[in-house]
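Q: My labmate handed me this sequence with no annotations at all. I'd like to see what the chain might look like in three dimensions before we decide whether it's worth expressing. Could you predict it?
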Amino acid sequence: MTSTEIVSKNKIVEYIVMHAPLLESIFWLLGQTETRLDFGHDCLITLTLLVNFEKDRPNDCAVRLSLLDDHLTLNGYSQVNTSTNIFTNV
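A: Here is what I predict for the chain of 90 residues:
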């Protein structure tokens, strides 16, 4: 593991953000009804963190999310219930 005081300088986190299969997996989870019901809220939180990873330069996640043209994924993205309490799964 590597550790730095500035999280955007962490090479492991940078690799995770720039790694395409992670984003494809999140998009697939949002595109499927069954998985969206179970993991949709977590997918949105993860996407939010990944998009805001580096504010000083555009990152791959923000660019790929802005260019996303899969209607099932975009529709699933809009149907995630964000009003659920995060402590209900504990």
